[in-house]
């Protein structure tokens, strides 16, 4: 059986992988690692673990780590070893920094994307204890000298096959070695800049500086995880051979941009306030051509500038300093460059999935080039697997900013040609002789291996036998599909469903008839049989025990899998978010634009969307617009997202609600208007808090779990939350389902009056779930609150019994109609707030037209802030720092950026609401009414007062 688990969902990672590692306890099985490895890198899904000896194919690019939302996959950390080397007095620690690091490092410390922080970076490395700090761009110039010389020879002498592929990207090199070994000769033999920097430091630099090379510890700071693999290639020991010192590596350690930042934070260094420093003089000068190595197309552009000089003996024309056809973020770019009498055809590619397409065209003769640059990572090294993560989901925008940073640096430099670098010229004069010399070949060039055998390395331990016919099996509980072909292992070697953890006897074979045997003991591994034996001992305790071979799933019975799960576990199914059951849809209600009778307003006509909550209160709450952030507790949500929601709603001049977990001071202080939720546990109920709130809402019920109290797992009860709730740290917190002192409508009225008095006239509201709407509203109206909130079916929650969530509460659309009708007929001038499944501005406009005075949103606000709808809120493992108290996960959520997103969403919604008012002919949004609506759903028309279209 394979030692790798869940390979249908995620990439397998071999223990001992030099570049990446998995922290198993953090994995949430989201599948993003496998998606990027399949779609962009073209490695996942191309091999069979049974044939590889159970060793995954990996080209070490680290893109899986880059997209992992929970730090389950990270680079293999080496900075601790470097830290120890720095402490060792006898060691001389020399750092060399790659170009892309300086265009991204600042992001780790809150600076704008693409900030060029070269001087601060050097200062940081010196603070960490470096003896020397050198620029790998120097070696990039050296690489260009060798690579361009090789290209010229290939083109003019035809001594090697064309096209020539670049060799700077070790992940790309290994990709060719594994999948296209017959095309290895196309790869330039020139080592990467780091591959050249290492031996040059331990020979030339050491001699010039009078340093014992055995004392040197070479450290490369790179954007790249694959460099950790590259420096460990057996041929990367040129200095060892030259000096006759056994066991010496050219480059000793590689640390990524993220590692450098992590180390700095551990040392509590304030990066932003560092005074800039400079590279050491010797081997410190670099050209702009070296700088742009970090960008897709940069190596190509730099090489062409120098190749032009080598062929024509003239300097490159101006257009080669801004070679637009090879710039940009297209996956495959092509250009033709006139060099003397030659038209040199070039291509630039990033992403090995794109490279694979190009390779196939080259093999078949469809594509014909002289020179091809390939980088594995998106946008080139600036998008490397060790770069700061794209926590704002900017995508190409982020990469464009980093690329611009390096191109701007190149443009600002006087020296923009590698062959004009005086230090490079001196290096050749004093040491290497000339490009492609015998010593240069020995020190600066390399060869490549045929690794295609890794794809068929034979059966390894636990991978015995073969599968004649690949099959798929589906878990009847959760729907997970086990694909033998993708997994590279027989289904019978599976112990349990990787998703719902139920035993394998709940699977059914896809394509089989209902009576087919899914799994029999004769087909199981010994381990699986033993597991079944253990189950059989417990069989008498299982009230639903039956022969396992009859397990099946009936797709026509949607409750069957739920019943099986409850029967096996004895536990209620808990889920996050809102119900997925069908219900009336806001999209089936349409807004009728005015034309002649009545006419619309001018498109720039002013529209009043001001919203007053508690218009008859002594101190009404006035909002810029009718949409505000609903109640979500600190505990269920992180402190960071609560602050972000408060700040964002304040930017939009609307309200923020506390949620049932009490008052988070930072949230209250940041809010423009603050609605305090009054709950049975009386969290944060003090005279001061009641007076400082802008409104108070009594929580009677919640749409997703009416009649139930809240439940905060002990794992989320941090010291700060425990203090606010006055509960023990780490213990579950259960909220009562009702107020003990509210049993009659008179009791409810007393509470309203008490809160109104204690708050000195703030608006008092009552929130109810959409259940027995008219009967509950009878109590509410009697109590004379200033506003009533109806929470309908369709809203979300951090965790709720699935069966309760799916089987209770009136749909929000019907609840709103019934509530408005009741209040109107009762003559109750009480503001009506609706919540529960409204997401976008058109939903809000329709709700206003149906009679709501305001709309409270929860999920929409969270999505605007950061939420990716993983539906794992109750687990505490939210990868974007929203529904978690894990300190490391919380760090991922940038409060100010998140707040800006929330503000943008709310302000955009307010603009849209003004547009809807204009097109329906209303100068005041609150004048919209059902005559502005129609529905295409006959049921909605029948059960509301909205006319059918």
Characterise the protein shown here:
- Its EC number is 1.4.1.13.
- This is glutamate synthase (NADPH).
- It comes from Robinsoniella peoriensis.
- Residues 18-47, 49-78 form the 4Fe-4S ferredoxin-type domain.
- With 949 residues, the protein is of the alpha/beta class.
- The chain folds into 4 domains: 1-75, Alpha-Beta Plaits; 77-319 and 382-444, Rossmann fold; 473-571, no CATH class; 586-943, TIM Barrel (Alpha-Beta Barrel), CATH 3.20.20.70.
- 34% of the residues lie in helices and 12% in strands.
- It has 32 helices and 29 strands.
- The strands form 9 sheets. Strands 18-28-27-25-24-21-20-19 form an 8-stranded parallel beta sheet. A 4-stranded parallel beta sheet has the order 4-3-6-7, with helices on both faces. A 4-stranded mixed beta sheet has the order 5-10-9-8, with helices on both faces.
- Helix 20 (639-651) crosses helix 31, helix 28 packs across helix 31 (895-919) and helix 29 (859-865) packs across helix 31.
- The longest helix is centred in the last third of the chain and has 25 residues, at 895-919.
- The chain is elongated, with a radius of gyration of 33 Å.
- It starts with 19 loop residues before the first strand and ends in a 6-residue tail after the last helix.
- 51% of the residues are buried.
- Mean pLDDT is 86; it is low at 459-468 and 512-544.
């Amino acid at each position: 059986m394979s030692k790798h688990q869940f390979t249908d969902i995620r990439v397998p990672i071999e223990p001992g992988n030099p570049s990446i590692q998995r922290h198993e306890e953090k994995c949430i099985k989201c599948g993003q690692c496998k998606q990027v490895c399949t779609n962009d890198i073209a490695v996942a899904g191309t091999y069979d673990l049974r044939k590889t000896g159970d060793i995954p194919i990996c080209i070490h690019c680290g893109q899986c780590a880059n997209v992992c939302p929970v730090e389950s996959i990270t680079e293999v950390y080496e900075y601790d070893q470097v830290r120890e080397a720095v402490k060792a007095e006898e060691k001389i620690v020399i750092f060399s920094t790659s170009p892309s690091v300086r265009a991204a490092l600042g992001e780790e410390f809150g600076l704008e994307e693409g900030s060029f922080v070269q001087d601060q970076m050097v200062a940081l490395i010196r603070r960490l204890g470096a003896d020397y700090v050198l620029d790998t761009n120097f070696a990039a110039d050296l690489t260009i000298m060798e690579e361009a010389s090789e290209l010229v020879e290939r083109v003019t002498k035809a001594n090697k096959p064309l096209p020539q592929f670049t060799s700077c990207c070790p992940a790309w090199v290994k990709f060719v070695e594994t999948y296209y070994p017959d095309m290895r000769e196309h790869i330039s033999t020139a080592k990467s800049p780091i591959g050249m920097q290492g031996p040059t430091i331990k020979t030339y630099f050491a001699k010039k500086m009078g340093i014992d090379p055995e004392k040197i510890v070479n450290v490369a700071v790179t954007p790249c995880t694959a460099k950790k693999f590259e420096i460990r290639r057996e041929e990367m020991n040129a200095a060892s051979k030259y000096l006759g010192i056994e066991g010496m590596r050219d480059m000793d350690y590689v640390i990524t941009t993220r590692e450098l930042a992590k180390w700095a934070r551990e040392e509590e260094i304030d990066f932003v306030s560092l005074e800039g420093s400079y590279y050491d003089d010797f081997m410190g000068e670099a050209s702009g051509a070296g700088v742009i190595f970090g960008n897709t197309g940069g190596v190509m552009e730099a090489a062409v500038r120098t190749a032009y000089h080598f062929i024509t003996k003239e300097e490159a024309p101006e257009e080669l300093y801004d070679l637009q056809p090879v710039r940009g973020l297209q996956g495959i770019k092509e250009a033709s460059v006139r060099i003397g009498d030659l038209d040199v055809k070039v291509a630039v590619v990033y992403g090995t999935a794109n490279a694979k397409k190009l390779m196939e065209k080259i093999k078949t003769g469809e594509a014909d080039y002289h020179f091809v640059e390939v980088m594995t990572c998106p946008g080139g090294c600036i998008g490397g697997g060790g770069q700061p993560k794209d926590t704002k989901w900017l995508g190409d925008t982020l990469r464009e900013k980093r690329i611009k940073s390096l191109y701007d640096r190149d443009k600002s430099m006087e020296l923009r040609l590698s062959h004009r670098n005086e230090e490079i010229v001196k290096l050749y004069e004093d040491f290497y002789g000339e490009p492609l010399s015998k010593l240069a070949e020995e020190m600066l060039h390399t060869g490549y291996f045929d690794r295609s055998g890794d794809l068929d390395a034979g059966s390894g331990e636990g991978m015995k036998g073969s599968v004649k016919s690949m099959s798929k099996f589906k878990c009847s509980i959760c729907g997970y599909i086990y694909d033998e072909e993708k997994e590279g292992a027989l289904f019978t070697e599976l112990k349990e469903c990787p998703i719902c953890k139920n035993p394998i006897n709940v699977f059914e074979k896809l394509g089989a008839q209902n009576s087919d045997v899914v799994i029999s003991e004769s087909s199981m591994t010994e381990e699986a049989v033993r597991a079944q034996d253990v189950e059989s001992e417990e069989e008498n305790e299982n009230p639903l025990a039956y022969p396992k071979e009859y397990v099946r799933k009936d797709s026509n019975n949607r409750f069957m899998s739920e019943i099986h799960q409850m029967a096996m576990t004895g536990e209620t199914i808990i889920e996050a978010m809102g119900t997925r059951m069908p219900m009336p849809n806001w999209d089936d209600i349409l807004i009728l634009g005015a034309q002649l009778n009545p006419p619309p307003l001018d498109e720039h006509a002013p529209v009043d969307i001001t919203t007053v909550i508690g218009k008859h209160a002594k101190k009404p709450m006035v909002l810029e617009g009718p949409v505000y952030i609903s109640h979500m507790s600190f505990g269920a949500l992180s402190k960071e997202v609560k602050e972000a929601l408060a700040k964002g709603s304040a930017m939009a001049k609307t309200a923020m609600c506390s949620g049932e977990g009490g008052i988070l001071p930072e949230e209250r202080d940041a809010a423009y208007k603050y609605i305090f939720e009054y709950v049975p546990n009386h969290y944060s109920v003090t005279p001061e808090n009641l007076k400082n709130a802008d409104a108070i809402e009594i929580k009677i019920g919640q749409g997703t779990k009416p009649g139930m109290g809240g439940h905060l797992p002990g794992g989320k009860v941090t010291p700060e939350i425990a203090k606010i709730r006055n509960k023990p740290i780490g213990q579950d917190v259960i909220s009562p389902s009702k107020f003990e002192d509210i049993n009659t409508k008179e009791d409810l009225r007393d509470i309203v009056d008490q809160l109104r008095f204690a708050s000195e006239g703030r608006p008092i509201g009552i929130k109810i779930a959409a259940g027995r709407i008219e009967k509950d509203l009878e109590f509410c109206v009697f109590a004379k609150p200033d506003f009533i909130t109806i929470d309908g079916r369709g809203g979300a929650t951090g965790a709720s019994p699935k069966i309760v969530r799916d089987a209770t509460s009136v749909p929000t659309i019907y609840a709103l109609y019934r509530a408005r009708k009741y209040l109107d007929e009762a003559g109750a001038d009480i503001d009506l707030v609706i919540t529960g499944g409204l997401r976008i501005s058109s939903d809000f406009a329709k709700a206003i037209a149906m009679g709501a005075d305001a709309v409270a949103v929860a999920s929409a606000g969270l999505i605007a802030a950061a939420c990716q709808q993983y539906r794992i809120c109750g687990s505490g493992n939210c990868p974007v720092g929203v529904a978690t108290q894990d300190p490391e996960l919380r760090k991922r959520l940038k409060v100010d950026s998140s707040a800006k997103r929330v503000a943008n969403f709310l302000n955009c919604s307010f603009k849209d609401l003004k547009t809807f008012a204009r097109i329906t002919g209303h100068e005041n949004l609150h004048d919209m009414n059902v005559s502005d609506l129609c529905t295409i759903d006959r049921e909605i028309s029948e059960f509301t007062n909205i006319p059918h279209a």
